[in-house]
Amino acid sequence: VRLVESGGGLVQAGGSLRLSCAASGIFFSMHTMTWYRQAPGKQREFVARIGNGGSTFYADSLKGRFTISRDNAKNTVYLQMNSLKPEDTAVYYCNAEWVGHGMNYWGEGTLVTVSS
User: Fold this and answer.
1) What is the dihedral of CA 25, 56, 77, 1, to 10 degrees?
2) What is the band of 102 on the pLDDT scale with cuts at 50, 70, 90?
3) Per residue in 17-64, pLDDT tens?
4) Among 28, 15, 70, 23, which residue's Cα sits nearest to residue 48?
5) Contact (Cβ atoms closer than 8 angstroms) between residue 110 and residue 91
6) 58-77: b or e for each residue (b if 16 or more CB lie within 10 Å)?
7) Are strands 9-12 and 110-115 parallel, antiparallel or unpaired?
8) Alpha-carbon span 69 to 51, nearest angstrom
């Protein structure tokens, strides 16, 4: 099983990035996919989730700026991040969970740095 995040990097405040998480070795379409992030010196926090049926859920503070989507044909989940702020600086992690089946996997993360 592998989850590989990509798309992170350095961006100026107000800019946009699209993160990708490519999954292999799992029945992707059955998994709930979630993005988390961890800023320096802080705990990992929830960002956004997309269910296997496509339903989405966001952290309240990020609604309207971040959009999660998935492409089951490509076994990939995306996180479109707009109007980025310096406080969005963090390592962003992808999580895959097949709810009710005890399967839960993490990627290694991709670093997003937003400069002011």
Assistant:
1) -20
2) confident
3) 999 999 999 999 999 999 999 999 999 999 999 999 999 999 999 989
4) 70
5) yes
6) beeebeeebbbebeeeebbb
7) parallel
8) 10
